[in-house]
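Researcher: We're reviewing a set of sequences before deciding which ones to prioritize for further study. For each one, I'd like a predicted 3D structure that I can look through quickly. This is TonB family domain protein. If possible, include the structure in token form so it fits the rest of the review sheet.
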Amino acid sequence: MKEKNNLEETYFLGKAQETRYTKSHIYKKVFGIAACVIAIIGITIVLMFKPQSVSQPHVLKTIAVLPEGGQMPIFNGNGDINDFLRWVMTNIQYPKGLEDKPARVVINFTVQKDGTLGLFKVLEAPKEKAYEQTVIELLKRSPHWKPARLSDGEEVNMEFTLPVVFTPEVRKK
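Model: Here's the predicted structure for TonB family domain protein, in token form for your review sheet.
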């Protein structure tokens, strides 16, 4: 049913109601809600693209992958990683009493800025702790390294992961 008043049209469903919603009243409500939604979306977008402030500069302490233009660590003054692997294979010895057991130790270590190896982390090892202790002790005795360098010449720590496989020697009968 539609009733006409002096200023606007009023709409009813069913019997007459005490509260009348006019077109202008409905338009004002819809416009108010739409304005609020647009304001919320706008504020959200502004906050998403606002630059984040950094309280402290990020300091690169250790790298695992050398950026372009950088220099790898140098083993024993003039060698590369292959020279280091040969040194490990030449100097590794079986732990006492475990000479007949095959084993594999995977260790992560860092060539530090001072040229020493450190920050050892065993990633894989047999239950006999003597294997990982043997590998760590060997790496601690490593000859001096020249540390890795970034393209600007800054010395940085660099991580490596080394698998060491213990294989029993074939014994002659």
